Amino acid sequence: MTDLAPPAPGMLEDLRRRFFASPLQALVSLLSLGLIALVGWKLLNWALLSAVFDPSQGAEACHRAAGACWSVIAARWRIILFGLYPYEEQWRSALACVAVVAMTVLSCIPAFWTGRRIAAIWLAGTTVFYVLMKGGVLGLSYVGEESWGGLALTLFIFVATCLIGFPLSIVLALLRRSELPWISRTTGLIIDAVRSLPLISILFTFAIVLPFALPHWLQGDKLYRVIVGSALFFAAYQAEIVRGGMQGVAHGQGEAAMALGLSYWQRVSRILLPQAMRNALPATINQFVISFKETSLVVIVGFFEIIASGNAAYGTGEWRFAYAEVYTFIAFIYFVFVFSLSRYGAFLERRMSVGER
C-alpha cells in the first residue's frame, strides 16, 4: 500500500516558510514590507490625496498643494496628444489614432488571420489614417507632415516601421540562408553593419545627411526618410530573430518536402516560415515593444512626437514646474500600449504552446 502524499501547506504556512523561516529573514521581510508601505503611501498621497485636478484653480493652487499638479494635464492635454496639429482639425488626429488602434486590434483576432484579410485590414487602416491626417480630399483641409505631432505621429512612425521592416526582415533572413555564398555573405555584411550602429545615428543620417547625397527628386519628405531608416534598423534585428527561428526547424522537414516535390517557395511558405515564426514569437514581440519605445528618438531629428509635445506642454507659460506630472502621463500612455502588446504576446505563446515539447 502506497503512502498518501502529505497535504499541501496552507497560505499562512507558505508565507511563514518563504519570508519568516529565521529571525533574520523575518526582520528583513518586515523592514522590506515597511519600506514598501511607506513608498506606497507617499505615492498615493502625491498622486491622489493631495493632488490638484481642477484646471480652473491655475498653477498657484499647485504651488500651494503638497501633491501632484494634474491640472497641467487637464489644461494641456491637447498639446500632448496632438502636438502642432491645427487646433480646429484635431478631431481628425484623434480619429486617426482610433483607426490605428482598431486596425491593430482587428489584426490580433484569430478570425482575421489570413493573408487577404490582414492585407485588407492594414491597407484600409493605413489609408484611413493617412487621409484623415493629411487631408486634401473629401473636403478635408490639407495638413502637411511638418504639422503632425503627438500620439498620432508616434503611432504612424511605429506602424509604418513595422509594416515596412517586417517583410524586409523575412527577405533578409532568407537571403542570409542562401546557398550562394556571395548572396549570403553580402546580406550578412549588411545586417551586421546596420546592427552595429545606434539607431540615433541611422535616423540622423537619413534625416540630415542623406539629402546631400541624393538628387532632389529622390529625397522625399524627411518624415518618410526617417521611417525608412527606422524600418531598416528594425529589419536588421528582426532578420536575425527570424533566422534563429529557421534554425530551430528540423533540417529533415525540408528534405522531406523536397522528396514530395514541393518547390522552394512552397517549402518556405508552408513549412519553414510558419514554424520559424512560431519559434521566434517571444523575441518578435519583444522587438515590437522595443520599436514602439524607440519612436521617442525621432525628437532628436526635429519631430514633434509625444515626448516633444510633452516638453512643449510644460515648457511654456505657468506650468514649467509640472514636468513630473507630464512625464508621468506620457509614461502611462506608453505603458498602456506596451503592456497590451506584451499581454497579447503572452496570449499568442499560450495559444501556440511556444516552448512546449
TrEMBL record:
The keyword Membrane applies. Keywords: Cell membrane, Membrane, Transmembrane, Transmembrane helix, Transport. The keyword Membrane applies. It is a multi-pass membrane protein. Its main location: membrane. One of its GO terms (biological process) is amino acid transport. It is found in: Cell inner membrane; Cell membrane. Belongs to the binding-protein-dependent transport system permease family. HisMQ subfamily. This is Inner membrane amino-acid ABC transporter permease protein YhdY. It comes from Starkeya nomas.
